[in-house]
Amino acid sequence: MLTPTTAELRTAIEVLKKLGERINTDAAHSVIQLPDTSLNDHYAGRIEVRAIEQTNRIETVAGQLKNWRDELLQQRRQNVSQSV
Questions:
Q1: What is the 3-state secondary structure (H, E, C) of the chain?
Q2: Do residues 16 and 61 touch, judged by C-beta distance below 8 A?
Q3: 3-class DSSP assignment, residue 29
Q4: Tens digits of per-residue pLDDT, 37-71?
Q5: pLDDT of residue 84
Q6: What is the mean pLDDT of residues 9-16?
Q7: How many beta carbons lie within 10 A of that of residue 64, not counting itself?
Q8: Taking residues 26-34, what's their average pLDDT?
């Protein structure tokens, strides 16, 4: 497996950010579409919890990718300073 470039990692992080935004938008839209009933209040809560869980997972992965990108940038700086 090839190591991704920092640009590829940055792109992946941006895609994950957009995915999280989309999940929140879709969840909000789904909740708005539910008629006002006590059962639907329960469904709305489940939709919101699921959206929170999914965005938390996305943020975790994005954080890991940011760390990896930072490590690659640091390695690049070290390689440049060693070759000078």
A1: CCCCCHHHHHHHHHHHHHHHHHHHHHHHHHHHHCCCCHHHHHHHHHHHHHHHHHHHHHHHHHHHHHHHHHHHHHHHHHHHHHHC
A2: yes
A3: helix
A4: 999 999 999 999 999 999 999 999 999 999 999 99
A5: 62
A6: 98
A7: 11
A8: 97
